[in-house]
Amino acid sequence: MTSKAPQPEEIQGAASDIRMQGGWRYLPRAMHPYITLARLDRPIGWWLLLLPGWWIIAGYSPNLETAFFLMALFMIGAIIMRAAGCVINDIWDRNIDKQVARTKGRPLASGEIGLFGALVFLVFLTLLGLGLLVQLPIRTWIVGAAAAPLIILYPLAKRVFGFPQLVLGLTFSWAIPVAASVLWAGMPPFGLFLVYAGTVFWVIGYDTIYAIQDMPDDRVTGVKSSALTLGSRLRAGVAMFYGAATACWFVGFYSLSGVDIWLFGVLAAGLHLGRQALQVDIAAPDTALRLFKSNRNTGLFITAALLAQQII
Description:
The chain is mainly alpha-helical and about 300 residues long. The protein has 17 helices and no strands.
């Protein structure tokens, strides 16, 4: 007797992260597993991937028309590449996800989508991403393609490295060198490297908070995370990462722009991160998810200030 793949209403329990949100749920049912696999109904992931690129475009494009065009292009690219990254992650983790309450309902783990279907979908997303790249300079193609090893390595890093969030940080900050490759033909200024480093620390911090949700399951499955590695020092660790992020952003943006409106954005972001760090509670996974999602505001504070700097 063959078992039937669980339907969405069967797997959307309180412990699951499979909850079709927004207008996506009105699309044909056959599309729902692919929407879920790509996390299209949960935009926080592509926002966090996009925002560092927006900082560079908003603050350093030659004019507003170019800035808005590139911001729109990068938004589409972030949605596509985040979707591709989710597919790769779920392909690697499909057997582990079956053992975790929060992820066992994901399409690959539950059997809604087979491995072949996921691979075909991944090829489709990759081709869409390449279609966007052809509108940008060739050097940007090279920089964008250079992120591929990081995207592939992250799911593996979770198996062998106590701080896999470092690999995620290098990956989710990659919009900065991609944006820089569009705006600078040669070697970008040193300040951009500091902004990139600060963003890596930011990602490590917020994903450490996110990983609080999975600590009990990760202990059972053997998956590693910075949350498990830090243990009782988790709050101090997050504060340290956020402090390093804010310091790098201050020095980096000062090197790029001198004293300007960006200062208000970074100050607001730093205060917001400090408030997050104070609320971290290793015993409160619901709080962890809320704090993680609030990092969109962190990035938007900096974006708004840099865009105002461009306008004024």
